[in-house]
Specification:
Blueprint: E1 26-32, H1 52-59, E2 62-67, E3 73-79
């Protein structure tokens, strides 16, 4: 071994912590031609309905029903996934 040689031992320890926070709001508006406000009713297993308003309220943080200019209602759903 050469007398002028230098032996170097390097130990590198890297610790990386990444925290990603994504905040997405989803707004959905549905216009219904019926002037009657939505209301909960028992779901029909034969496909006759009853699930829509229950599902909207389950998924939404807030709901709002506003009248439309063409005789009906607009239902807004606001949720954070």
């Amino acid at each position: 071994m050469d007398e002028d040689a230098i032996d170097i031992d390097i130990d590198i320890d890297i610790d990386i912590d990444i925290d990603i926070d994504i905040d997405i709001d989803i707004d959905i508006d549905v216009t219904d031609t019926s002037p009657v406000r939505p209301q909960s009713r028992p779901p029909h297993t034969n496909g006759a309905g009853g699930c829509g308003w229950l599902l909207v309220n389950y998924l939404a943080e807030h709901t709002a029903v506003r009248p439309t200019t063409r005789r009906g209602a607009r239902v807004g759903r606001i949720a954070d996934p």
